[in-house]
Task: inverse folding
């Protein structure tokens, strides 16, 4: 019998079982159970990721590619196996489209320098939005200084939303590239990326999506999004630091010159000149972060082992609970109230500076981030020097949010 | 409890009602302090009478630690000579970074001793003091890059 309504109800999410997969969540801070609400800065690793890295370090480490001995072949198989997992994770067309980099920042710089720099002429334009992380602003400013191109930024509204029309309004015949976040790290806004990319493509504008804050929260299908480049970091999706991915459409990557020269990215080197290796190795000069890539592959396996609709429902429940609970606190103002938000809440509390709040919460074992979140134009827009940000992962609980609210109440009493 | 040691009543009071807060025109020396990572900003203005700090006021925005530290500092150095103010800076610097017990000369400034248990917050307490040193060492008005303790 057909029961479409029932099929949409996600299975109950066993958050305590998931928490047990993350050893660090058992620790105490200042004698209190850790409430880790700083996932937007870096998420924690499950035991499976720690074990994959440990196993590699103990049993398989050697340099990859070209080695004929057993360890080198095992290391190569593990490293390239991780790449295969990432192909499936974001539905790339082939392994040629997955470049391992240090993280989102390096991925964006690679595109700026290898794709855009040779292409841009004085008067050309690069289009970003107002809510970008500094990593999706500064590489373009540097590029513009190098090429004479101009940087334009599409505005957001008072809720922190980016509208298709305001981005389209800034697209001109000189626009060469659209670079925007999938999810805002400072506000949580989910951008209408598919429509933005579509608008860019219909005008012949190449698009890069900063997916650092999206991959931990949303299923990402780069073919469905239609973007040309997609960048993300391992450590925000429960993998290690120092590893990330640049996805690029193969036809574009083929045409791009290498970014860095060195070992592994060449076919043949003569003193006069060298010929370059094919994709993806052309962009992976030098010995890469092998253990990081293997850990990231394990993180993909872990995420895919979870019931995605249940995870998403749990994260939205956390967001709803936080919005409701924090919203009731006198003098608390939530910054960023987009209708489509990932699971994070940025806020300020009247009379309590975010840094004092951060210190007071830490005393209660609650980890949040305070400051400008590497998004100073966002702070300027909302006319605040800094905010406090609680950013959730699927292993967080409503009880942790209640502890956060109670501690904010205590801070208000202290400073009132 | 360490938190009560950090946010002592004196600190909370000076954060709530900062002393010597506001503009000072004309000033003999005006120096900005800015910690870009946390966003704390201070503008410190001094009037000098020979070697003496005749008046001192500050403006800006920051956390309770940086605001209270600046407020306490202006109270402590007003009417003092340049050398006395610099000596006080040295004592406060030691207070924030050493384990030594606060000396009697510090008076109310001893309330800042709770900060040293919070290494991430030392830069908040010390921003105004480094700004003061800059203002005293070479009196000037604007045009210099802001002082930072990050």
Result:
């Amino acid at each position: 019998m057909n029961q479409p309504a029932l099929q949409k109800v996600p299975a109950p999410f066993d958050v305590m079982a998931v928490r047990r997969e993350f050893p660090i969540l058992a620790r105490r801070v200042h004698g209190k159970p850790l409430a880790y609400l700083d996932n937007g800065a870096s998420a924690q690793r499950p035991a499976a990721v720690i074990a994959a890295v440990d196993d590699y370090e103990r049993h398989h480490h050697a340099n990859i590619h070209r080695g004929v001995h057993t360890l080198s072949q095992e290391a190569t198989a593990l490293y390239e196996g991780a790449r295969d997992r990432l192909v499936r994770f974001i539905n790339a067309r082939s392994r040629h489209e997955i470049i391992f980099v240090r993280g989102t920042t390096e991925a964006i710089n690679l595109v700026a320098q290898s794709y855009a720099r040779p292409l841009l002429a004085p008067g050309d334009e690069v289009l970003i939005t107002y809510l970008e992380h500094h990593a999706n602003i500064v590489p373009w400013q540097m590029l513009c200084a190098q090429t004479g191109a101009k940087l334009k930024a599409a505005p957001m509204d008072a809720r922190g939303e980016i509208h298709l029309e305001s981005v389209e309004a800034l697209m001109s015949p000189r626009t060469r590239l659209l670079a925007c976040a999938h999810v805002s790290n400072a506000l949580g806004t989910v951008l209408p990326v598919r429509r933005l990319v579509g608008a860019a493509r219909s005008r012949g504008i190449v698009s890069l999506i900063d997916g650092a804050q999206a991959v931990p929260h949303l299923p990402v299908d780069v073919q469905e999004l239609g973007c040309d480049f997609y960048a993300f970091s391992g450590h925000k999706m429960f993998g290690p630091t120092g590893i990330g991915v640049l996805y690029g459409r193969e036809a574009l990557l083929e045409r791009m010159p290498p970014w860095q020269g060195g070992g592994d990215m060449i076919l043949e080197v003569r003193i006069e000149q060298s010929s370059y290796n094919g994709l993806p190795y052309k962009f992976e000069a030098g010995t890469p972060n092998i253990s990081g890539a293997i850990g990231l592959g394990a993180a993909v396996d872990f995420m895919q082992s979870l019931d995605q609709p249940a995870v998403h429902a749990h994260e939205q429940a956390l967001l709803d609970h936080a919005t409701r609970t924090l919203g009731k606190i006198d003098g608390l103002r939530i910054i960023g109230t987009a209708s489509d938000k990932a699971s994070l809440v940025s806020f300020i509390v009247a009379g309590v500076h975010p840094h004092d709040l951060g210190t007071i919460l830490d005393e209660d074992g609650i980890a949040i981030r305070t400051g400008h979140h590497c998004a100073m134009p966002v702070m300027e827009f909302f006319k605040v020097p800094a905010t406090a940000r609680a950013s959730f992962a699927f292993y967080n609980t409503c009880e942790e949010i209640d502890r956060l609210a109670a501690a904010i109440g205590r801070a208000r009493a202290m400073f009132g | 409890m360490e938190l009560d040691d950090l946010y002592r009543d004196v600190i909370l009071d000076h954060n709530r009602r900062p002393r010597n807060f506001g503009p000072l025109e004309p000033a003999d020396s005006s120096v900005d302090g800015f910690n870009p990572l946390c966003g704390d900003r201070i503008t410190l203005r001094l009037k000098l009478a020979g070697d003496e700090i005749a008046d001192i006021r500050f403006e800006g925005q920051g956390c309770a630690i940086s605001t209270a530290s600046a407020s306490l500092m202006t109270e402590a150095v007003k009417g003092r000579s340049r050398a006395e103010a610099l000596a006080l800076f040295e004592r406060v610097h030691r207070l924030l970074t050493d384990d030594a017990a606060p000396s009697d000369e510090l008076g109310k400034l001893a309330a800042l001793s709770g900060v040293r248990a919070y290494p991430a917050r030392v830069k908040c307490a010390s921003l105004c003091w480094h700004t003061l040193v800059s203002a005293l060492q070479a009196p000037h008005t604007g045009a210099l890059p802001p002082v930072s303790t990050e």
Chain B has one domain: 2-137. Residues 2-137 of chain B form a domain with the Sufe protein. Chain: A fold (CATH 3.90.1010.10). The CA atoms of residues 7 and 90 of chain B lie 22 Å apart. The longest strand of chain B covers residues 40-49.
